[in-house]
Amino acid sequence: MSRIGLVGSRARVERDWALLPPEGVAESVLPEWRNTVSKVLTAPAMGAAFVQYELALAAGGGTQQTLADGVQSFLFVFEGEVRLDLNGAGHTLTSGGFAYMKPGSRFSVDAEAPAKLLWLKKRYVPYGSQKPHDLVGNENKLPGETYMGMEGVILKTLLPVDTIWDMAMNIFTFPPGGSLPVTETHVMEHGLVFLQGQGVYYLGREWMEVQKGDFIWMGPFVPQSFYAAGAVPSRYIYYKDVHRDVTL
Ligand code: UGY
Ligand code: MN
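# manganese (II) ion complex -> structure
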């Protein structure tokens, strides 16, 4: 059937940042994942040093695989429930559940009913003889902390702040009218998914409207800030590379 009208989009891909509303991201078939609709949100092809996916598992969907040597990964449950076997240990992950998988992990994921996941893979940058270990939790069990004295702005760090990890996965909550206290510029990258609410995100030198479901990639040094609007608190989960010196 032909489509009548214009086909606009909020999607933007710039040299050092991107904003992707979910409906426009084409599906990929990842052969390791069965009964799963996969969307690659960012990848080295965009300029990122990591890859981030949205995975929509149908009933019976899942995977069994081994991460490549030196590659770590992180799983977060947006919706639904999955069974995770991680290096021989079994876990049930419900909404808000997450798992950090150490480099080279063998794991399986199985969904009895539809579930939606964030998945991220990054090459681990070693430091000395320290090694990261698997970690499983649920953000609903983490209280979070007030961010830089901004009342009502809460930051949850899903991974402990420790140099054994070279990455952070954090969740921010902002009350309507809340904002980041500064416009940040830093060498670290972000891969960010809006979990709830809406607002305006400063990217590069533009304010962009954002809402639940949107994905943002911020490359090194992209100026960034956020101002929450709407009637409910805004929440987003984001990746950040941390704890390592710059490679020359
Ligand atoms: O941790 C961060 O860099 C965070 N404050 N950045 C962001 O939310 N854009
Ligand atoms: Mn930042």
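# post-check
The mean pLDDT is 97.
The longest strand covers residues 50-66.
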